[in-house]
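Researcher: Next entry in the queue.
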Amino acid sequence: MACFSFLACVPLDSQLTDGVVHRNDTEGGIDYTFECNRGFVMNGSNHVKCEDGVYNGSAPNCLPKGELIPDLFYRHYV
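Model: Structure for this entry, 78 residues:
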């Protein structure tokens, strides 16, 4: 008889300021999809997945459209 052990995924904060979080629990972990409200843009990935206790990224945040992200500006234009 085989014994399998899976690491549990610790849920992410289900709050996204100026946006919505959709959570889907699967047999192997948790899938999250993120959406920003109208007038906001996403800073980060809109999809994060956890399998066997390991996330492939972190939750994004929503920024007002037109707000400059200094780090991105610096890396691409300087």
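Model: The radius of gyration is 16 Å.
Researcher: Noted, moving on.
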